[in-house]
DNA sequence: TTGGCTATTTTGTGATCACAAAATTAGTCG
DNA sequence: CGACTAATTTTGTGATCACAAAATAGCCAA
């Protein structure tokens, strides 16, 4: 007997029909994971949007299998909401959720920035400054999706230097939870009236001032969520 | 022929061979999830232990499928470590990880307890007192697994009253991360020299004193992890 | 037109399969 | 006797299938 003992009913062709893409190991799941995370963080998934296995699978050109694993992963981070009947949707915001996310961010992110500060040098400050300039541009253009992407890049450029294994994933989970909602908010009230605490943070990094950096990050969170959040919640 | 039009190659029998268990929807995954979580929290999974799909599946009497989803879930919470080659193991502790978990717990758990305080009444205090008595018993018996289980019950009896949707999952993730390590520590140095801050916390609940509860939880965390952790880490 | 019922479709869940890479074991040669 | 290599086993990954429950569409009657 050869190695195929029983009838082969499925998946005889991992790639196209030529051996062009050898379908590297673990690629499909990573692709789905980054795609969905990116969509959540830039607000392309609206709160309440239904996420279906086969739908996402077809959209990304993979089988439902890697999608299932990614959905479980994101559900564990509370970035997706699995309803009791198994249906999955992007979580909707509620006042209590919003307040708690704000509280959690204020507890964790300033601390994380302080942890990162010793590893941040002037080159990093320059990169942050460039990102911040692009942010200003996005604001003046009213490009909410670009703003969300760059704001995320700014914060995590800082946090990444912390080499944190614990706080960092917690903060990433928080961002996945509030980002979709912020997109709808910015889409409604615009991004114009945002006070720019980023420049303050950059100055604190250049001065190697932990207290100032902590305060700048906290103020940025408070302004970014506080000012916009209140009048835009489903109900007060 | 039966109603299956095409060849039926798999899963012809969802339950045993009599219709005893109709295999309720979503039971298998929940069963695996609670089993693995419980094993992690009570230290039955030692850090470094390899977790295999087929192994766990056979051990729990289910197909590898629900195990895959649970592993992805727990990996997303950093309760399991997926190595670059796909192998999964219970994460090992490192000094930096330990310090960061301690820091994160001190940031989140006292706050969570304070949030819970308004919802805690004297009946809850009584339940907590009973749990604490059992904890004392476990300590005197040197039963580390029972101690871990009851200590978890004590803390989360408090936290559950917070009705938290955000902080609570973060704290659960933290517990899953340090519990397996604590089991090995308690197994080595014993549970005898634990200062009991639980009674202080119960008193604070009875007095409706947020500051005292905050302080008691913080002290409990510091003592539980600080005293034991240092001399037991792999390397300093 | 509308309310309720039925039929169809959609969707998540559990299971098995084929395959490749990795780990383990066996075997052999120096 | 030890180290290197080849064969075997283990293990994760992606895919398809059958099934049940839920959601939707369709339909008929009041």
UniProtKB/TrEMBL annotation, chains A, B:
Coiled coil: none annotated. Residues 26-93 form the HTH gntR-type domain. InterPro entries: GntR_C, TF_FadR/GntR_C, Tscrpt_reg_HTH_GntR, WH-like_DNA-bd_sf, WH_DNA-bd_sf. Transmembrane segments: none annotated. Keywords: DNA-binding, Transcription, Transcription regulation. The keyword DNA-binding applies. The keyword Electron transport does not apply. SUPFAM superfamilies: GntR ligand-binding domain-like, Winged helix' DNA-binding domain. This is GntR family transcriptional regulator. It comes from the Bacteria. Residues 1-29 are annotated as: Disordered.
